[in-house]
Amino acid sequence: MDVKKLLDDATGEISSANDIAILNQIRVKYLGKKGVITLMMKKLKELPKEERPKFGAVVNEVRNKLEELLSEKLEELKQKEKVERYEKIRVDVSLPGAKRDKGHLHILTKIQRELEDIFISMGFEVVEGPEVEDTWHNFDALNTPEWHPARDTQDSFYFDENTLLRTHTSPIQIRTMLEKKPPLAIISPGRVFRRDYDSTHLPMFTQMEGLYVDKDVTVRHLKYTLEEMARKIFGESAKVRLKPSYFPFTEPSYEVDVWFNGSWLEILGAGMVDPNVFKNVGYDPEEWSGFAFGLGLERIAMVKYGIRDIRDFVRNDVRFLENY
Ligand code: PHE
């Protein structure tokens, strides 16, 4: 048996083993129960007595050497596998992160906040009121007589004879005046409800009421306030025009148009608070005067962004929403 060749072969195999499983096979091949070295030890008995010590010593030496090589290699392979494992799970913190789609506020919320900021900057306070109203706040106190079409069940959503979903934000005028003493300046954004549904009307839409009560308030104050709002929303060149109209709770009453992108577009209703409304809340109409307006948020957004169909606001289609 060429021990030198055996050692060389084994050394070569060990050094070229590139994973732990192969290294184990090599260990078994040489040092296992039926391994080459083990078999040599068994052969010891067959040798003449005087040769046994020398042969035994050589085989032992080879075995020790192989064990040493095997354990060195095992360490090396373990180290290598560890590095590979870490390499696999390593995170490169310098890589750009996965980009996530970010949401944003709904266009109506944005318009609402924009308007709130504008009116707050002019000294108005934001107040809110209930969406379920009684007919007194929604109609009677607002000087809206029994015969008015808005009171018809065809036009409104009633729970019972005296309770309905508010048809406008104007009942907030009443609630505010009953609670506070003049002078006062409030705006009130919120949802309102009517039995309407087409490309320019929704059964639920959003208004912002405005009310200013003080001494000697004139139409000029109303017009200036609306012009200021229009310039901030539609740009410095925006103009405002008042056309005679009718609301039971204002006298005189106006439809208000804004000059934008080359045409006059109607955006709101307004007027001077009717003396009867002041009487209904216990204000002396000889002492106090005021203006009120109610603007449609969807309407403002449609004019500003050229949106054709009001139903797009509630369709919840991101392809529409992400444009604004
Ligand atoms: N409430 C009226 C509407 O919904 C708008 C309005 C408000 C008009 C205040 C005048 C004054 O049509």
Describe what this molecule looks like in 3D.
Mg(2+) binds at residue 251. One of its GO terms (molecular function) is tRNA binding. It is an enzyme of class 6 (ligase). One of its GO terms (cellular component) is cytoplasm. It comes from Thermosipho melanesiensis (strain DSM 12029 / CIP 104789 / BI429). The strands form 2 sheets. The chain has a 7-stranded mixed beta sheet with strand order 1-5-6-10-9-8-7, with helices on both faces. The protein has a 3-stranded antiparallel beta sheet with strand order 2-4-3. The chain starts with a helix and ends with a helix. α5 crosses α8 (219-234). The protein has 12 helices and 10 strands. A hairpin with a 2-residue loop joins β7 and β8. Helices cover 43% and strands 22% of the residues. The protein has 2 domains: 3-89; 107-321, Bira Bifunctional Protein, Domain 2 (BirA Bifunctional Protein, domain 2, 2-Layer Sandwich), CATH 3.30.930. The protein is an alpha+beta fold and 324 residues long. The model has no long low-confidence stretch (mean pLDDT 94). The protein is rod-shaped.
